[in-house]
Amino acid sequence: MGSARDWMMAAGVLSVIASLLHLGCIVGGPDWYRALGAGERMARMAALDRPGPAIITALIAGVIAVWAVYAFAAAGLIRQLPLMRLALVLISAVLLVRGLAGPLMQRWRPDLSTSFIYGSSAIVLAYGMTFAVGTWLVWPTLSMKDEF
Question: Other C-beta atoms within 10 Å of 27: how many?
Fold first, then answer.
């Protein structure tokens, strides 16, 4: 099954990859936004050099980078961070909900193909499971001193 450290290292690496892919959209422009599923509206705004897509995408990349830091802290690469348990549970929950929300996405994102919706949902679900299993395994070693 792998150790808690292995699962959290994997979660951290997946987070770094996801963050870099988001930054790639900013550099790569409209085609990257389309390829990674941001939708035609974001791609068109990026093509017009509007700042909105870059700002939103940079914020998302930043949040995911913070998730990587929490995963690496849970793996023991760096010191524990404040609210480790809460953060890891919330990160896992966000990813699992997004991964399971594929069928619902078709209602509010009809512009996305079915294969993209289900493919991306499967990837995010696996990413969320990595965080969730790692969190479950590392839980006993996490300090509760900074928790609520």
Answer: 8
